[in-house]
Amino acid sequence: MKRQILIFSCLLLSLGVMADGGDQTVTIGGSTVDKTVKQITFNGDDVVLHFSDNSTQTASMDEEVKIAFKLKSTYIETINSQFSILNSQRVYNLRGQYMGENLDDVRASVYIVNGKKVVVK
What we know:
By secondary structure, this protein is of the alpha+beta class. 18% of the residues lie in helices and 40% in strands. A hairpin with a 2-residue loop joins strand 1 and strand 2 (31-33).
């Protein structure tokens, strides 16, 4: 069971390391390690943490190893409206059927306009 939890942690670690600007807190046996983990491997009943400074630390699977991630959120600040441009183009449904040239005349769905998906609410 502990090995499954650690394997799941590896998957989460890979997501956290890829996340831009993410911070992580590594705790081994209750002690915080001020390093960033870049890889986790297993050696028998031990877990080996490989850090970004090319050092490693081995911990027994009996010890509690935690890696917590604090990710920066990203959001869209502004939206450039291209509705007037899209509104005068040929509109197709997802089956490729021509629906007309105006998004005002279609019901709420997803359409293809100028080669891009457009959501009409």
